[in-house]
Specification:
heterodimer, A: 197 residues, mainly alpha, B: 203 residues, two-stranded antiparallel sheet
Chain lengths: 197, 203
């Protein structure tokens, strides 16, 4: 079904029309928790782009070269989550060694990423939709960029909103959800352009 | 004493400390599966099953898990139960399994389960942890069910696939899509939080 779709279509669809956060609701927890300042949002966004692009490829390899030949596809949840956790841990150690500066700006976000549902979600979508190797990479990259785009714009809006008066019960999470809703509406405007399912 | 504890576990997890609206945890799946009631019920059952049993298992093993790798161990335990849920769904409800798609697998990264094992099961006996799992599962489920009912009525005019409004009804297609979920959950949080803060002021 999706075999015929070129990788650039998947790439742009993952950023705009099928934004992982605003249409698939993945990665909401850290989206709400870390979107108070643009700077931290940028750091987390970069980390997510990086991890998503690499883990989607790693998980694709593990799925098609280890799990499918051995007929163990039902173990994919465990394998994916182990690969993600191990990769994140490894990257954290490497970054800590090579660059102090990068570690303070990016490294502190890495542990948060293991529990980000977007990472596991992208790997699962990739398996369900039968993507090829190249498509998986671009799907991962595109989803990461889409997620970063959403969280950075969200942080920007929330920074501006600090001074506005919000009804008491709505302050915090409630307001963040309403903003996310309006952003999702805006992104729906893209949906006519192309569509992947 | 024991009875008192059990009661507190339930009232805390379902009411005041409800994971969805007080801590805003685990809402990925809250939003994704609530456009139709049927899927939501299946999701809730799966979630209650996973939370309670993984809480129970972690609590049984709590004295043997080294502190440094505990997150990994917890994740693996949760993932095993989710695999059971996934296989059962595929075998008995293939339609629903296809509709839920990746969201069954995403129960693993649902912060509620991880949060409960981390916060409760690691320091409490198995029986109580099991109950805590069920309680927070229910606390999560009833919020999901309310949102699902609202979205299904407004979005398709049905409940559980049965039409309940007349022909004059126009579907709010926005409710079935992403933004509807955000708005309904935000309104829900608003109402509940307003209630809680009023209670707090009275005291």
């Amino acid at each position: 079904m999706t075999q015929g779709i070129a990788f650039y279509a998947i790439f742009f669809a993952a950023i705009f029309t099928n934004n992982i956060l605003l249409t698939n609701y993945l990665g909401m927890c850290s989206f709400l928790a870390v979107s108070k300042e643009v700077k931290t949002a940028q750091g987390l966004g970069m980390a997510v782009i990086f991890v998503l692009a690499i883990t989607s490829v790693l998980n694709w390899l593990a799925y098609h070269y280890i799990l499918v030949p051995l007929n163990l596809t039902f173990l994919r949840f465990i394998v994916f989550i182990i690969i993600i956790a191990a990769f994140v841990q490894l990257i954290e150690m490497i970054i800590e060694r090579i660059s102090e500066k990068l570690y303070t700006s990016l490294g502190i976000f890495l542990p948060l990423i293991t529990v980000n549902c977007a990472i596991l979600g992208v790997s699962l979508f990739m398996v369900i939709r039968n993507y090829t190797f190249l498509n998986s990479f671009f799907y991962g990259l595109g989803s990461g960029i889409g997620w970063a785009l959403a969280i950075i714009s969200m942080a920007g809006i929330r920074e501006k909103m600090k001074k506005s008066r919000v009804p008491k019960g709505l302050a915090g999470a409630g307001m963040a959800l309403i903003i996310a809703g309006i952003m999702a509406l805006a992104f729906m405007g893209f949906s006519g352009m192309l569509n992947i399912t | 004493m024991e009875k008192f504890k059990i009661k507190r576990v339930f009232s805390d997890d379902i009411g005041r400390n409800n994971p969805v609206f007080a801590q805003v945890l685990g809402i990925c799946s809250t939003l994704a599966v609530t456009n139709v009631l049927k899927n939501t019920v299946v999701m809730c059952v799966g979630l209650i099953f996973t939370t309670s049993l993984s809480n129970f298992t972690v609590s049984l093993m709590r004295n043997y898990i080294p502190a440094r790798v505990r997150m990994m161990v917890e994740t693996l335990i949760i993932a095993s139960y989710v695999i059971i849920v996934d296989i059962v769904l595929k075998a008995y409800f293939p339609d629903i399994s296809r509709q839920l798609g990746p969201y069954v697998g995403l129960i693993i990264t649902n912060c509620i389960i991880m949060g409960r094992t981390e916060a409760f099961a690691l320091s409490n006996p198995p029986g109580l942890s099991f109950l805590d799992g069920i309680a927070s599962g229910f606390g999560y489920s009833y919020v999901l069910l309310i949102i699902a009912v609202v979205r299904e009525i407004l979005g398709s005019g049905t409940i559980w696939g049965i039409r309940i409004v007349g022909d004059w009804w126009t579907n709010w297609s926005i409710m079935v899509m992403a933004p509807g979920a955000f708005f309904v959950l935000a309104l829900f949080i608003w109402v509940v939080k307003g209630q809680i803060s009023e209670e707090g002021e009275k005291k």
